[in-house]
Amino acid sequence: EVDEKDELRLFQSPVKGAEIMKMFDLPPGRKIGTIKSLVEEAILDGEIENSYEAGIKFLKNTIATN
Known about the structure:
Layout: H1 2-10, H2 17-24, H3 30-44, H4 52-64
């Protein structure tokens, strides 16, 4: 159980903040972290696989529809 919590704490989005800023023409800020969290939550919830390609596709579909 402790190992599992450590793994979750160390988990990071396969899509980095710089890429998100470039994709959506956003400045650095909290919004980038919020967007990264969307990818991380989708992966942890099993909605998408833990890959860069899946993260990018998810963001394009999610952000474009919001």
